[in-house]
Design brief:
With about 700 residues, the protein is of the alpha+beta class. Helices cover about 10% and strands about 30% of the residues. The protein contains 9 helices and 36 strands. The strands form 11 sheets. The chain has a 4-stranded antiparallel beta sheet with strand order 1-2-3-4, with no helix packed on it. It has a 4-stranded antiparallel beta sheet with strand order 5-6-7-8, with no helix packed on it. A 4-stranded antiparallel beta sheet has the order 9-10-11-12, with no helix packed on it.
Length: about 700
């Protein structure tokens, strides 16, 4: 049984939770070839961890994570007794015991903070025997925090007890809670992601349809936000809920409750976005006569055999927190989609949802197996119950693009979206390596010939950490017990995506190298001898132009690195050179020191109104620049040098013109008017997207020729 998989970039191995065996499997990817398909990976080691923690009777191993800062692997361990606390087990890379720490009840997911200092678990605390049976307990949900920087680390288990006196506030904000239960026992943490600066964790509370914000250092939850509800009555949110042996995706008098399982985090500039795989999950505990469920059946349409088609919906009489809707409107589990939420202070705002894409795409490529289960190959068998069931989501940067991978638990396979502009995410591809022509065995087990069935956990590997030099995606398939490794060799094309099987998207781009630590001082003149800039490249003339003028040089003697995203520090350095490198002193930013190559340029740019910092003493010199930030810097430079800034362009042709920040609208219109910046497509301006060095070289050439002259 393959459940959760984690990758170790230090040794090019992945670590897999083998739930059935209560062991950890280790497999090397070091010899993986970028050019060969259908490669078999060999199990290198199987680590039996079941006896490593004295006095703990192991239940399930639920999750695994790797910390390359401290060379350790963490495993989440649940106790066999569902009422007792679990543990975080720490191993070295070879699987040897290092330490263990107490965790809350039923740790279901483990992760390390990006800085490597903290290890955290989401502790579900499920009432597995229900609420009224003799001896039944509803354990408190919690998050366990262990600060590994201490000489003797200890567990800090953070519960929701402080929110019990705020129950009414949560319900009024549409956080779902069972009637008669307090947040401290009803909230069940499912998944955790941590901010880039390791200060905050965002915790999925699946059954409550919410995400909690955790201040890690303080050890307290500062916010709990509802994820809202999906209206299947409106265009774009069509759904198939009838098992009539056909594809019939249409609007219904239903609302979806997102209830994500896996979540991911994407940070661009100073903005933070959370991605959610909107699976849905019912609360069904215990056995008769003491069984509890918060679901009921309603009839929607007729099945193929003429009988009533019953659809599971949430029992509104057993839950608090639903929005006011007409009595005829029912709430179903999940969104059959993935969503993107922008974090704004202590609130969340949904900026994208994939709508009906997942069902439409799978219907297109697998019409004979649309909404099949992970337990049979029957057409339409999951239409009345969560459909394709998105399970997990992860992201990867490739070239100047950012992609999201979403695993579908039931029909299987992985969706690929370009989320470079989170407000305008674009479907790119779908891959499924399950063979629907092979039947399930009579005992319900899978045949190896069926391929990969039922993605559970996914793990994206960026190109710089990949043994093949291209982004990889590891997919642990729970039902087939397999791990699939997919490679994305090219940036996804803007055209209609290709097929439903095979490995990777279509299009073209080279692998993104690392952003250089410094911007080399250019020679007064430079010949074009960069190995990564060819005469037929679209950016050749621009690179030659800025190189000969001494404004930009390669990252070394042989490479220009055209695909590297330009940074804020890099841009002010180039503009400082364009201005003649005037001397300036003084620096007001905590994250800019004399050691930074851009320190003098930042001081000059700030003093002359070219750019400002982010506030709180931060400039963000190493952060990737957005297209609208770049337009503002060029516009302010033109004003400083008293160039003509009267030109303006019409942005209304772009569907995303409305998301241009208020402080950037004038500059973007000016840049469009001079032809310095154009849309990334006929309809998309992509103001929050990044710009590569090649793109900046092109914009700079246009700016000089059109404005500086």
């Amino acid at each position: 049984m393959a459940e959760i998989v984690a990758y170790n970039s230090d040794n090019k191995k992945f670590y897999l939770v083998n739930g059935r065996e209560k062991k950890v499997d280790v497999v090397s990817l070091e010899n993986l070839s970028a050019e060969q398909n259908d490669q078999n990976l060999v199990l290198e080691k199987r680590i039996d961890v079941s006896g490593m923690i004295p006095d703990l009777v192991f239940g399930d191993l639920t999750s695994i994570a790797v910390n390359t800062k401290s060379d350790m692997v963490a495993v989440a361990v649940q106790a066999a007794d569902y009422k007792s606390g679990g543990a975080i087990l720490i191993l070295d890379y070879e699987g040897n015991y290092i330490a263990h720490y107490a965790a809350g009840v039923q740790p279901d997911m483990v992760t390390f903070s990006p800085c490597g200092r903290y290890v955290l678990t989401a502790d579900e605390g499920e009432p597995r025997e229900g609420y009224v049976a003799e001896g039944a307990v509803d354990p408190r949900g919690s998050v366990t925090i262990v600060d590994l920087s201490f000489e003797q680390p200890f567990s800090h288990i953070v519960t929701f007890a402080d929110w019990d006196n705020r129950r009414e506030e949560l319900v009024n904000a549409n956080v779902l809670l069972k009637k008669g239960l307090m947040p401290s026992v009803d909230l069940e943490p499912e998944y955790i992601v941590v901010s880039r600066d390791s200060s905050k964790a965002y915790v999925a509370l699946q059954e409550a349809n919410a995400i909690a914000t955790l201040d890690i250092a303080a050890g307290e939850f500062t916010a709990i936000n509802s994820l809202g509800f999906k209206d299947h009555r409106i265009a774009g949110n069509e759904i198939d809920v009838v098992r009539d042996d056909s594809v019939n995706i249409k609007n219904e008098d239903l609302m979806g409750v997102y209830m994500p399982d896996g979540i991911s985090i994407y940070e661009a500039g100073r903005k933070t976005y959370l991605l959610t795989a909107n699976e849905g999950d019912a609360s069904e505990w215990g056995s008769k006569p003491n069984k509890y469920t918060n679901m009921k059946d309603v009839v929607i349409g007729k099945r193929a055999n003429g009988k009533d088609n019953k659809v599971e919906v949430m029992d509104k009489d057993k839950m608090d927190g639903f929005p006011e809707v007409p009595d005829s409107v029912e709430f179903i589990l999940g969104g059959r989609s993935f969503s993107i939420y922008e974090v704004s202070g202590d609130s969340l705002n949904q900026v994208f949802d994939s709508g009906s894409d997942f069902e439409k795409v799978t219907a297109k490529y697998y019409p004979d197996y649309f909404n099949a289960s992970n337990k049979n190959n029957k057409l339409d068998s999951r239409s009345d119950a969560k459909g394709p069931e998105p399970e997990d989501v992860d992201i990867v940067r490739f070239g100047q693009k950012v992609y999201a991978y979403i695993g579908l638990e039931r029909i299987g396979g992985v969706m690929l979206y370009d989320i470079t502009n989170p407000r305008n995410a674009i479907f790119k591809d779908y891959i499924n390596t399950r063979d629907f022509g092979v039947d399930f065995r009579e005992d319900g087990t899978t045949d190896p010939a069926q391929g990969d069935v039922s993605p559970e956990g996914i793990c994206a590997i960026p190109a710089e950490d990949s043994p093949t030099g291209y982004p990889l995606l590891l997919v642990a398939n729970e039902v087939s017990g397999t791990v699939a490794v997919f490679q994305q060799k090219k940036v996804a094309a803007d055209s209609e995506p290709g097929g439903s099987s095979g490995g990777g998207s279509t299009g073209g781009s080279k692998v993104k190298p690392e952003i250089p630590a410094s911007e080399p001082a250019p020679a007064p003149a430079s010949k074009m001898d960069f190995g990564d800039v060819k005469s037929d490249d679209w950016f050749y003339d621009a690179v030659e132009y800025v190189s000969e003028k001494g404004l930009m040089k390669g990252v070394d003697d042989e490479k220009f690195a055209p695909e590297i995203p330009a940074s804020r520090g890099m841009i002010v350095t180039v503009l400082h050179r364009l201005a003649g490198s005037p001397a300036v002193t003084g620096n007001e930013f905590r994250d800019v020191s004399e050691k930074n190559y851009y320190s003098e340029a930042v001081a000059w740019a700030v003093a002359n109104g070219i750019v400002s910092g982010y506030g709180n003493g931060f400039f963000g010199g190493d952060e990737e620049i957005t297209r609208e930030q770049l337009a503002v810097m060029l516009f302010n430079y033109a004003k400083l040098m008293k160039y003509d800034i009267s030109a303006t362009g019409d942005l209304s042709m772009y569907t995303d013109a409305g998301v241009v920040s208020s402080w950037a609208k004038e500059a973007m219109a000016w840049a469009k008017g001079h032809g310095i910046i154009s849309g990334v497509s006929a309809t998309s301006l992509d103001p929050a997207g990044t710009a590569t060095r090649a793109q900046f070289a092109t914009m700079l050439m246009r700016f000089i020729e059109a404005v500086v002259k």
